Amino acid sequence: MDKTIASTADAVAGIDDGATILIGGFGGSGSPIELIHALIDKAPKDLTVINNNAGNGHVGIAAMIEQGLVRKMVCSFPRSADPRVFTQLYLDGKIELELVPQGTLAERIRAGGAGIPAFYTPTGYGTDLAKCKPIEEFDGLMYVQERWLKADFAIVKAELGDPMGNLTYRMAARNFNPLMCMAAERTIAQVSRLVRTGEIDPQQVVTPGIFVDGLVEVANPQQEEILNQIGAVYP
Amino acid sequence: MNEVIKAIKLSNAQIAWRAAQDIEDGAYVNLGIGFPEMVARFQPEGQNAIFHTENGVLGFGEEPKEGEEDWDLINAGKKAITLNPGAAFFHHADSFAMVRGGHLDVAILGAYQVSQTGDLANWSTGKGGVPAVGGAMDLVHGAKRIAVITDHVTKQGDPKLLDTCTMPLTGVGCVTRIYTSLAVVDIEDGQFVLRQKLPAISFDDLQKVTGAELKIKARVDDLIAPEL
Predict the structure, then answer these.
(1) Does any domain span residue B119?
(2) Residue B167 forms contact with A (CB below 8 Å)
(3) Alpha-carbon gap: B13 to the closest alpha carbon of chain A (Å)
(4) Do B172 and A126 touch (CB under 8 A)?
(5) What is the CATH number of the domain that holds A17?
(6) Strand A141-147 to strand A135-138: parallel, antiparallel, or no bridges (unpaired)?
(7) Contact residues, B window 104-143, toward A, CB-based 8 Å cutoff
(8) pLDDT in tens, B97-145
(9) Which site among A123, A204, A222 would you substitute to test the B interface, given the most B Cβ atoms closer than 10 Å to its Cβ?
């Protein structure tokens, strides 16, 4: 079995207009910047993007939004050090936002990957974000029904990957990535180092290869925080 | 009145210091982004909490020296952090299982408003702009104690402790204790119960800047914080 893909351009080739995409990362940590930039080069339109944030500066997801690829963001915190790109379009009514509490976002994605269509959480009960959602009492406390979240594609960043698709993550760059791998029709990972099958200790695998459809090596990946410090703009 | 309060009130650092005195050794603690992060600096000698951050780190330490940041090692506020011995990484669903599942001992959050029934408003002023909630709505559920640190009044001098919140809620009936710039107030049975107050303010004056009745159930101690 060999799931490796030669280039980032090949990796995103199947992502077309109107697709829903889970994009891994929390801020810059675990953000698949090179895959995002390859997607900007391909330039599909009307995308729905699911990520904790709505981009920062003029690279990564912010650049996707700036280049007009995104119709809707699903996120918990569309603010950042420099959120101007999203903020302006949102205030002009040119981009949609579905605001989801962070833990609910994570669990909806996990549920999507685990075949659980809905679940109940205490989060959001009695707030504006739970309006119109079913509520239920369990053991004397009130809970809100939330539905699974799935996507056509997931693009994620991992540290090590092997041709079977097994992945490990570097420090807190793990965040949403393992969940997103589970919840898409097609999951593509950029890995900082591609190793031979058998080289990753099975005890260290975080995302088993069954959740990954394709992976591409991007050695020495760029980091959003560093790009923003130097004022980088993509493309 | 507002001028008098400005002259006597605790600084943010002093409020954070006071909140830190109640964190037990070995407690699992989440500090909200911004002002609450300051609480970590003021742990009493020999009392070491284990800090949780939403993006999947347990047991993080101080911020790194400038130039030594690793941007794969950040907290929920996207600030660079370091690790203490015994730290652990995990994905976002496990991180919020720790939150909602009741595994944290304490969560400390900021507030726009808190009601006497423990409702918290801290994510939206309701005035428009771009809404952002992050992990606040999750954090108010699950931790054994949900504490708020806040100025007692707004910049305009209006009460932040109210009978009912007027801003959009983060959670209903979730707050258990409030550390303010003037007092320490518990929420018990739908009432504000005064535990400590600055010696420089009278009970009557404190009541005037509080938007619901302050009950006294036991002795009210002096709230005294060191100069910081």
Answers:
(1) yes
(2) no
(3) 23
(4) yes
(5) 3.40.1080.10
(6) antiparallel
(7) 119, 124, 129-138, 141-142
(8) 999 999 999 999 999 999 999 999 999 988 888 999 999 999 999 889 9
(9) A123
Please give the full DSSP string across chain A, using - where no structure is assigned.
---B-S-HHHHTTT--TT-EEEE--BTTBT--HHHHHHHHHH---SEEEE-SB--BTBBHHHHHHHTT-EEEEEESB---SS-HHHHHHHHTT-SEEEE--HHHHHHHHHHHHHT--EEEESTTTTSGGGTTS-EEEETTEEEEEEE---EEEEEEEEEEE-TT--B---GGG-TTHHHHHHSEEEEEEEEEEE--TT-S-GGG-SB-GGG-SEEEE-SS---HHHHHHTT-B--
Q: A35 is in which domain, residue-wise?
A: 1-115+149-158
Please give the ipTM for the structure prediction.
0.96
Average pLDDT, chain A: 97
Q: Domain span at residue B99?
A: 2-62+71-222
Which residues on B lie below 8 Å from A207 (Cβ)?
A: none
Question: Residue B112 falls within a domain, yes or no?
Answer: yes
Phi and psi angles of residue B46, each rounded to the nearest 5 degrees, phi first = 85, -5
CATH of the domain at B125: 3.40.1080.10
Residue B76 inside a domain? The answer is yes
Closest by CA position to A224, among listed A36, A8, A7, A42:
A36
- C-alpha span between B160 and B114 (Å, rounded): 6
Decide: A179 and A218 in contact? Cβ < 8 Å.
Answer: no
Compute the radius of gyration of chain A from its Cα atoms.
18
Instruction: State how many domains chain B has.
Output: 1
Maximum separation of any 2 CA atoms in chain A, in Å: 55
Tens-digit pLDDT profile for residues B2-41: 788 999 999 999 999 999 999 999 999 999 988 999 999 9
- Which token pair is A190? 């950029």
For residue A235, whether the previous peptide bond is cis, meaning omega lies within 30 degrees of 0, is yes
Question: Which residues from B are below 8 Å from A129, CB to CB?
Answer: 133, 137
Q: Rounded distance, CA A151 to CA A112, Å?
A: 9
What residue of A is the nearest CA neighbor of B165? Answer: A127
Structural domains in chain A (count): 1
- Tell me: the pLDDT tens digits for A95-152? 999 999 999 999 999 999 999 999 999 999 999 999 999 999 999 999 999 999 999 9
Q: Which residues of B carry out catalysis?
A: 54
State whether residue B87 sits within 8 Å of chain A by CB: no
Is residue B192 within 8 Å of B182, Cβ to Cβ?
no
Closest to B89 (Cβ–Cβ): which among A107, A126, A171?
Answer: A171
Strands A214-217 and A184-194: parallel
